[in-house]
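User: Run a structure prediction on this.
Assistant: Running it now.
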Amino acid sequence: MKKWVPLLVASLVVIAVVFYPHDSRRAAALPEDLAELIDRAEKLVVLQEPFDGAEVLFESSERSDLDALKSSLRVERPQPNHYVHCKCDGTPAILFYANGQVIGQLTNHHAKFVRCSLWKSDAYLLDAEAFLKWFDERNILGPRREYERS
């Protein structure tokens, strides 16, 4: 083997580690991270879908709406190395804002799981009814209909 091959391999590894874009989200859902995100938010916007240009279903800068959402979201941390990822995009999507900038996103997955921009894995909802009630109280009826159909 050529003497320069180990040096080349080592150099490529260093380049990959330094320049490869890493996903900074945590693998497992941490309920306290979600609570902290909602506490930092000054505004929330509920979109029909998690895509640019989607219909706005609800928006609020009221602390009571943010706190009610936080109370409704009881999630279970997935087991280590057991990641859950629903194949749908999740509807509706909730965007969280602070200082006019999006600081996070949460999507509903059949009122069984939520996906958050903070994590790689979806998180299992421990109380679907509380989450659905939050939507119901804001006249966002799609999540309840979907849940009842399934």
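The radius of gyration is 19 Å.
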